[in-house]
């Protein structure tokens, strides 16, 4: 069972025999009771709501059933019993709905170690309600697979995290990015033994670099010793071959990291964004000093708005924000190709709200930043894409650029829950576990069977979303897709199933698939099981 979930008690019914309704005979007329005055808040004669005399039982039910924050808000709105002070510790003034939300917050791993003062600060930052804090925590867990098993298809190397927090790495290792103390390539998934006993909840992989986040908010990094190293070619020669704590982040409780080209970003437990080597003015998203090892808070509109997810592309950053009015997306950095989503191709020095989602009436729930294009999944399951549309990576049936989010009409009948983007490629996972892909077919990373197109290319580009039938055949529900987000490396893709099985396909020339290739093989066209259990 995942650390963030709890079982819901099952009510057992005894001594009730099955019989049809017509077989039940009423022998004597039932007595008629006088309707008492309706009470919501209990007293000595609770009336039609007898549980109001035992609010502790109601609180237990609300907490044990893991009600959604919106459901708790609806209870408050419809019944005064749930609005009035419940007179329970730790705050006698809190309502039952607020207490239930607070209790569920205390189950979250990143909330548990917070001091009372830190919790109150987070509450005010989220809007002054524990229900809003709970929504913030749940949103972060959902979009980042925080504290759950995950696989990262990095540029030439791969990272896999088990549900228990153990970490495996494999693939290219020229800069020590596998963390094994050497620079030797590894095709077989190998645990990072120096991290035994340390629980990892999130991972990020860039060109020649890896970052791991622990459940205590610490950050380990290894590979290229720079937060702003370019993907191709390097400014420095120093490499770190074993995980080392990032000292400059020791006073920040980090829950997510995102490695873009030329820069790195991290997200704190309180929803604040920090960047390394971000640059300024005309060099937004580009390092100005490759030796910049200090985190800088992202200034502007998001200073007082909590962020639940960050996604880094080629010199730009997307931030999924959680406000009392709902979820929203902000973008900042290089606007080339329209990838910032504001209807223009201009750069943005400070985070700017993407207003198109309000026009489309979409509540964003997951964001993905490819090298040159971006995507969002809405609460209603709709998928939006925008940016550079080369090779059909936007899924609109053409290769045109879109400077503002546009709904992928070909997925109208699909309720999406997850999206992943890479270098001109996009994957969408539906609620029932089906996987669709579109964009550049190079390196077999889309998962479709190889066919020769009119130009003789073995892997054709896909302009509209197509069901990845090869993943359908594994007969397991896919919950996560990860693909290489780099313009310089041959791409590979991972599909993680609900039971923790990992499948890989695409380029494997550096061992990044975790599968041994023979003879002159450089790729796998169809998904193949990686010999590692992440469940």
TrEMBL record:
<feature type="repeat" description="RCC1">
    <location>
        <begin position="381"/>
        <end position="432"/>
    </location>
</feature>
<dbReference type="Pfam" id="PF25390">
    <property type="entry name" value="WD40_RLD"/>
</dbReference>
<dbReference type="InterPro" id="IPR009091">
    <property type="entry name" value="RCC1/BLIP-II"/>
</dbReference>
<feature type="repeat" description="RCC1">
    <location>
        <begin position="500"/>
        <end position="535"/>
    </location>
</feature>
<feature type="repeat" description="RCC1">
    <location>
        <begin position="433"/>
        <end position="499"/>
    </location>
</feature>
<feature type="repeat" description="RCC1">
    <location>
        <begin position="271"/>
        <end position="323"/>
    </location>
</feature>
<protein>
    <recommendedName>
        <fullName>RCC1-like domain-containing protein</fullName>
    </recommendedName>
</protein>
<dbReference type="InterPro" id="IPR051210">
    <property type="entry name" value="Ub_ligase/GEF_domain"/>
</dbReference>
<dbReference type="InterPro" id="IPR058923">
    <property type="entry name" value="RCC1-like_dom"/>
</dbReference>
<feature type="repeat" description="RCC1">
    <location>
        <begin position="217"/>
        <end position="270"/>
    </location>
</feature>
<feature type="repeat" description="RCC1">
    <location>
        <begin position="327"/>
        <end position="380"/>
    </location>
</feature>
<dbReference type="InterPro" id="IPR000408">
    <property type="entry name" value="Reg_chr_condens"/>
</dbReference>
<keyword id="KW-0677">Repeat</keyword>
<feature type="domain" description="RCC1-like">
    <location>
        <begin position="149"/>
        <end position="483"/>
    </location>
</feature>
<feature type="repeat" description="RCC1">
    <location>
        <begin position="165"/>
        <end position="216"/>
    </location>
</feature>
């Amino acid at each position: 069972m995942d650390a963030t979930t709890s079982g819901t008690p099952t009510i057992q019914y005894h001594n009730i025999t099955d019989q049809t309704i017509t077989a039940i005979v009423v022998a004597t007329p039932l007595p008629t009771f006088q309707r008492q005055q309706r009470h919501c808040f209990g007293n000595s004669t609770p009336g039609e709501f007898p549980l109001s005399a035992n609010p502790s039982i109601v609180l237990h039910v609300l907490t044990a059933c893991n009600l959604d924050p919106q459901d708790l808000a609806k209870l408050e709105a419809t019944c005064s019993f749930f609005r009035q002070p419940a007179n329970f510790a730790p705050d006698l003034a809190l309502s039952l709905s607020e207490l239930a939300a607070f209790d569920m917050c205390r189950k979250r791993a990143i909330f548990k170690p917070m001091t009372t003062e830190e919790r109150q600060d987070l509450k005010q930052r989220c809007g002054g309600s524990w229900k809003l804090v709970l929504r913030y925590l749940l949103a972060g867990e959902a979009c980042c697979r925080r504290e759950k098993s995950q696989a990262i298809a990095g540029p030439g190397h791969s990272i896999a995290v088990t549900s228990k927090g153990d970490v495996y790495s494999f693939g290219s290792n020229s800069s020590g990015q596998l963390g094994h103390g050497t620079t030797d390539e590894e095709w077989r998934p190998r645990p990072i033994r120096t991290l035994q006993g340390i629980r990892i909840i999130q991972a990020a992989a860039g060109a020649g670099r890896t970052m791991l986040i622990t459940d205590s908010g610490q950050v380990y990094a290894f590979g290229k010793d720079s937060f702003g190293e370019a993907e191709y070619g390097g400014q420095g020669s120093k490499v770190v071959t074993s995980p080392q704590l990032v000292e400059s982040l020791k006073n920040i409780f980090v829950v997510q990291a995102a490695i873009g080209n030329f820069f790195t970003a991290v997200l704190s437990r309180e929803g604040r964004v920090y960047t390394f080597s971000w640059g300024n003015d005309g060099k937004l998203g580009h390092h100005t000093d490759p030796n910049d090892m200090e985190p800088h808070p992202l200034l502007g509109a998001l200073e007082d708005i909590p962020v639940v997810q960050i996604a880094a592309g080629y010199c730009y950053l997307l931030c999924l924000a959680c406000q009392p009015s709902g979820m929203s997306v902000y973008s900042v950095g290089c606007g080339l190709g329209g990838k910032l989503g504001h209807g223009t191709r201009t750069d943005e020095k400070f985070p700017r709200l993407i207003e198109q989602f309000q026009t489309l009436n979409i509540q964003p729930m997951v964001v993905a930043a490819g090298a040159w294009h971006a995507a969002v999944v809405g609460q209603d399951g709709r998928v939006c894409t925008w940016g550079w549309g080369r090779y059909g990576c936007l899924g609109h049936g053409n290769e045109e650029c879109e400077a503002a989010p546009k709904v992928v009409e070909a997925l109208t009948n699909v309720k999406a829950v997850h999206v992943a983007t890479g270098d001109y490629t996009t994957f969408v996972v539906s609620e029932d576990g089906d996987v669709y892909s579109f964009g550049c077919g190079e390196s077999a990373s889309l998962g479709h069977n190889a066919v020769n197109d009119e130009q003789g290319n073995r892997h054709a580009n896909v302009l509209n979303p197509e069901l990845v039938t090869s993943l359908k055949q594994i007969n397991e529900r896919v919950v996560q897709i990860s693909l290489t987000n780099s313009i310089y490396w041959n791409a590979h893709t991972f599909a993680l199933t609900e039971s923790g099985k990992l499948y890989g396909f695409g380029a494997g020339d550096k061992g990044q698939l975790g599968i041994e290739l023979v003879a002159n093989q450089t790729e796998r066209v169809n998904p193949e099981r990686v010999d590692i259990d992440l469940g």
